Amino acid sequence: MIRFDELKLSESVLAAISEMGYVEPSPVQEQTIPFLLENDSDIIALAQTGTGKTAAFGLPAIEKTNLNNKNIQTLILSPTRELGMQIAGELEKFCKNLPKIRIVAVYGGAPIEKQISELNRGAHFVVATPGRMVDLIKRNRIDISAIDRVVLDEADEMLNMGFRDDLDFILSKTPESKCTWLFSATMPREAEMIAKNYMKDPHKITVGAKNAGTDNVHHVYYQVQARDRYLALKRVADINPDIYGIIFCRTRQETKDIAEKLIKDGYNADALHGDLSQAQRDMVMRRFRIKNLQMLVATDVAARGIDVTDLTHVINYNLPDDVENYTHRSGRTGRAGKTGVSISIIHSRENGKIRQIERTLQKKFECAKIPGGKEICEVQLYHLIDKMTSTEVNQEQIEPFMERVMEKIGDLSKEEIVKRFVSAEFSRFLDYYKNAPDLNISVREGGREDRGERRDRGERGERGERTRRDRGERSERGGFERREYNGNFTRFFVSLGEKDGVNKRDLIGIINQTTKNRDIALGKIDVMRNFSFFEADKAATKEILKSFQDASHGDRKLTVEVAEDRAKSSAPRRREGGAPSGDRNRDFGGKRKDFRDGGLNRPRRRNK
Fold first, then answer.
1. Are 163 and 291 found together in one domain?
2. Which letter, b or e, does each residue of 384-422 get, where b requires 16 or more Cβ atoms within 10 Å of its Cβ?
3. Which residue, 187, 289, 305, 344, has fewest beta-carbon neighbours within 10 Å?
4. Are residue 368 and residue 493 in the same domain, yes or no?
């Protein structure tokens, strides 16, 4: 294994990284640093999140910095404020013995005037989020027309977050003579387009298989009824008493709901979502980093830039829409040589997604059983005993109380004391899991779900209280497959159907891509031959209609309208498979059928 002192780095930099504990470079550092030190060319480096990419591009950029030139020489773009601050902090540590190098981080959520003042004092490195960088360029407060290099860190994440136009704008303001260094965990089509448009014969480095996950992560999935996801989540937490992880949800509302339930049920958890102010977000992250929180519930967008090296678990409360997002999620554990577990809680219709992720990551997932009450109680009891026996005793602190304590214990034997201690500390847990049902399902022929054990009673939501069952099943993106439309969603018509090669998943992707907002809750989706319907959060109605105004799919211009409005403005006509849309209550064979939304929603057939 090569050492850092063999990489032709300066003594000043070597002394700084040695102080940080760096001895041997990671695989991506070993391949990237020598190349960038010796060449002035573009590079694409693909490596799993958490493999040391900051040092891979940061150390060569520092070595190439001209201290006599006070202008910006390196621009580093990152997807989030947190990641940008982390990169700037790492660079400052690398430059500990090079005080003349100035590094400025600019990002949203902080006063722009202060950042402008920092830039006016001069900077060799600027670490920026795309949105704030665009703002500074449009205000003529930053000049990047003569920079030497641009680093696109976590390029795939920036594109997933909808920064394609911002990146195009920023890169168009840079000189053609610059070098572009693109670092990413995955290489989606959009990243390939950026490489094609803005890079010249880039040298490619791939550590591990393309889009593959880290070898230090064990992938597990549990298969349950959709309505049992939360109960399964609690059992996963209970069977892992020392869990320190992130729970990923699809929507910010689901994030809030799950976090609130966990807190109410006595778990050490909190939520990270887009509705938090920057101060609130910082407070949550500070508590999580110092392990005052065991579980952080977050959306993909909110979790971008979180860098905690010792996470034990990542839990997918819902599988993400894109395989690349799963790669990013699972890559947040198993870092810095440590091992981790990526857990997915799925229902039977999501087996295909698991197989797809397996093929992409080239890793086999373990189909595990949700633990039962007895198993969980054993683990928790032994954990409690281990915690008690390993506790250090502060004699001086407790000595004043011991005489009275011994009087109260009286003639109780050691065995009696242990029994009473366990009963006092553990009785609520034992009561909670007493007669707990089996949550596991298996899929039999014909697609029917078979529960391992008949549910005779509901599992308790809080310790000692029955939980209310969530009605309906979560759809592919966190909405509800409701039997009755509940009024909190707007139903939309879209001029795409099966004949266009579109299925439910494709339609979700089109909505994500067009609105550039994955946090919009979606409900029921009906894909028909010539057109489709989807339900979305009523609060997002204007946003969706505006986003789709000039949208197209291939060569076709898309039409998206509120279904009720379309029904009211349309004359009665024949619909697919039957009745005119104007006939709300036609009599079919003596049975009345309710045609909702102006006849555009076909009545469901009942299973006989």
1. no
2. beeeeeeeeeeeeeeeeeeeeeeeeeeeeeeeeeeeeee
3. 289
4. no
Residues 54 and 196 in one domain: yes
Enter the pTM of the model: 0.57
20 and 112 fall within a common domain: yes
For residue 469 the two structure tokens come to 């069952």
Euclidean distance between CA atoms 373 and 378, whole angstroms: 9
Separation CA 306–CA 284 (nearest Å): 12
Across 69-94, b (16+ Cβ under 10 Å) vs e yields eeebbbbbbbbbbbbbbbbbebbbeb
Angle between helices 27-38 and 53-63 (to 10 degrees): 20
Burial letters 479-501, b for 16+ CB under 10 A, else e? bbebeeeeeebbbbbbebbeebe
Residue 256 to residue 264: CA distance in whole angstroms: 12
Total domain count, the chain: 3
Q: Is the torsion defined by CA of 163, 164, 167, 173 positive or negative?
A: negative
CATH of the domain at 586: 3.30.70.330
Q: What is the pLDDT of residues 215-274, one digit of tens each?
A: 789 999 999 988 899 999 999 999 999 999 999 998 888 999 999 999 998 899 999 887
Q: Which residue segment(s) compose the domain that 271 sits in?
A: 217-372
